[in-house]
Amino acid sequence: MAHIDYYLGTVSPWCYFGHDRFEQIAARHEASVTYKPIDLFQLFDRTGGVRPQARHPNRLAYRSQELARWADYLELPLNAPPNPFPNTAPSSYAIIAAQASRTGDTGRLVGAVLRAHFVDGRDIADDATLRAILQETGFDPGLVDSGLFVGAETYGRNLDQAIEAGVFGGPFYIVRETDQRFWGQDRLEFLERHLAAL
Length: 198
Prior knowledge:
Elements: E1 3-8, H1 13-28, E2 32-37, H2 40-47, H3 57-74, H4 89-101, H5 106-118, H6 127-136, H7 143-146, H8 148-165, E3 172-175, E4 180-183, H9 188-197
Parallel strand pairs: 1-2
Antiparallel strand pairs: 1-3, 3-4
Helix pairs in contact: 1-5, 4-5, 4-8
């Protein structure tokens, strides 16, 4: 059975677009998944990328068109969040704590956080919002508080591990057994072909 390290950012629309399809692919191939939320902005800083807010207007205009095209193609709702770049640490800590608790479906939680941000416009940096999302997905809402320490520690370590593993953007999927790396939701077909060949 393959194991996939899934590096993600909770405010990445590309993670939102790819998440459900990735979950289906992993399930079809009985692959286990470790969810590794990271600070994508710090990742960009450390690997030669440019934060969206600092990109040239031409790139931002193209990005807007691409987001609309992909949303239409995938038939997924996409609403501009009131705050497009909230602090990602709280939502990442919640995901990390939930995964460590081994009490529910972490993939379902990740999807709920992404939808809360990109569909419902909820504030995923707000503790009350995160408690509600945890409860909605079958986790103890108290993880927002009890998982703070392990979340913070792991969040920083995830970023270091990402850079060591060759990650430079998100979503980024790495098959541990083969060190095959797939960047972007538009590479999920290649990930599935690889899993099928194992």
